Amino acid sequence: MTVGLRLDEAAWGLLHQAIDLYQDNPRAVAQLRHQVARLEQPLRIAVAGPWRSGKSTVLNALMGEEVAPVEGADGVFTWYEDGAQPRATAYPAGQPAQELTVVKSATGMRVDLGWRAGEVRDIVVQWPTRALRQVTLIDTPAVTGTGEQGRLPVMDRVLRDADAVLYLTRDGRDSDLRVLESTRESAVGQAAPVNVIMVLSRADETGGGRIDGLLTARQLARRHHRDPRVGALCVNVVACSGAVGLAGRMLSESDFAALATLAGVPRAELEAHLLSADRFLRGELPVRLDPEVRAALLDRFGLFGIRLAATLVRSGFDSRVKLSAELIRRSGLTELRESMTRCFIDRRDTLKARSALAAVEALLRAEPVRGADELVGTIEQILAGAHEFRELRLLVALRNSRLGFDAELVAEAQRLIGGDGVGLAARLGVEHEATVQRLWEVAADAQWRWRDRAEDPLLSLAQRRGAQVVVRSCEGMLAELAAGGR
């Protein structure tokens, strides 16, 4: 929320200025009009990362069904969007679009690519699910190697086509940080790391597969987020085991019955059978469990997931519903979805505007015309004054460190900057039907209280700067009310 022109309004106006500037270039005008249309489309979130970082597994966990990957589609961008019926369309390079055969299963679907994947650039999968009503998820090729001048072709396209990115990494190693650093060359990229969440996506492997490995992974994520180098590259760091999260979301009664049977085996005795996949599949278990059931459990849960689930059943999560909820929570999937909601979905207009500004800037630099320098300067001015970005960075900082504020002040600050919703009533913590007078009184009171904190010399610099962001948000709410908004 800004005092004056909102970021999405500024981006819309700049797009049309650019259209006027390139009116003699039909191809450039088509690109810009495409960006105008994108402003009204669902938020595009790409799931990116190196080979075997678990992109498809995390994507399936987010959707709660086994939909990805499309078999044989290595090197292809696969778009998952909401649709009335399951449908898949391939877009080969230089050829007409082709409908693909979709086979539904009890747990999701399978798509028959039908020809060499090298001919296909994109596949669009329509799948009816609530998870895709507000977003389009993009399963991307592995980030490997570099192209000309050290560029990463996959990430170049990810940043061009997506509004936000879940960047998956096993442990946030230096090579992954260099990938993200290579994407911050433009004015838009350098302005604020507000469209990337780093996901430690193999959290179940942390700590050598011990039961407390997921807790260790969350602690590692918090340490990463406090690292200034990491903080300059992403808006949040979340640890998540996509495998455990997906297993929790798809847990069936038959799965639970098998896990409960295993939980009846003393822990030390069961552990001996979970040292390797071969031992679990072919060993003589002290309880009756058919080989087909064992294989299905291993495929769905993995050894770590079986060990964790059995431990949870013994600890009192003794029904399918209870065990499912606890597996999802422990996996980090709940935290990841909440982070996506607060950082991405609730900030849809901001991220859409950011994508539009990036597209215009790229065009202006690649094909400069008279007046291009002035528009680049305008983009830099818009970004410098984009309060929406400051709100998002403060929101994550409050959740990860509190900045030294007590819990009550943290909760109020989070609410005022949109952490509980970006509408006026949600920000001010009042009933939705509140009168304009009531909204004004609450906003004005909050503004004065947080202005006192912003000017308090006894507070740290970080606290005063955080308070300044809250004050600016309150000013924005008052300006919106003065203009007749609610």
Automatic annotation (TrEMBL):
* Protein name (Swiss-Prot/TrEMBL): Dynamin family protein
| InterPro entries in alphabetical order | P-loop_NTPase, TRAFAC_Dynamin-like_GTPase
Protein species of origin:
Micromonospora acroterricola
The source's domain of life comes to Bacteria
